[in-house]
Specification:
Elements: E1 2-8, E2 11-17, E3 26-27, E4 35-40, E5 44-48, E6 51-64, E7 67-77, E8 85-90, E9 95-99, E10 107-118, E11 123-135
Antiparallel strand pairs: 1-2, 3-4, 4-6, 5-6, 6-9, 7-8, 7-10, 10-11
């Protein structure tokens, strides 16, 4: 388990990060740790208004003394020099990301993160999931 601080512009948040197990799409806390698990879906081809795209999602799993605050799902084409495409959802919602154009036979990588508030005063705990890789 790695405990660190993450700083966003104008905001410093203590963060608890637990790495997902190899290839698993789920990151869970130890039974006594506050926060929420992260559930990540593998990259898959979806049809969006007649256009083939690659999609993945990140959602909060079981929570321990915490309330989900933010989920982030990212997709990247392996070998691309471009940054991953990421989408976030606030509250207990699911972050769904789509990547276009879909390239048949290419390999895509999905990563995700869920953050939850726990305690009084509230502390933010984040858990990462992935990477999940799929050749589509």
């Amino acid at each position: 388990m790695l405990v660190s601080a993450v700083t966003w512009p104008g905001l410093a948040i203590p963060v608890l990060v637990v790495a997902a197990l190899s290839g698993a799409g789920h990151a869970a806390a130890a039974p006594g740790d506050p926060g929420c698990a992260t559930t990540l879906s593998s990259p898959q081809v979806v049809d969006v208004s007649g256009t083939a795209m690659v999609s993945s999602s990140a959602s909060p799993g079981a929570c321990n003394r915490a309330a989900p605050q933010l989920q982030v799902a990212c997709l990247q084409l392996v070998g691309s020099t471009l940054a991953p495409v990421c989408v976030q959802a606030e509250g207990p919602g699911t972050a769904r990301v789509t990547f276009a154009p879909y390239t048949p036979g290419a390999t895509y990588v999905a990563t995700g993160r869920s953050c939850a508030n726990a305690g009084s005063p509230p502390v933010t705990y984040c858990r990462s999931a992935g990477p999940l890789t799929a050749t589509l």
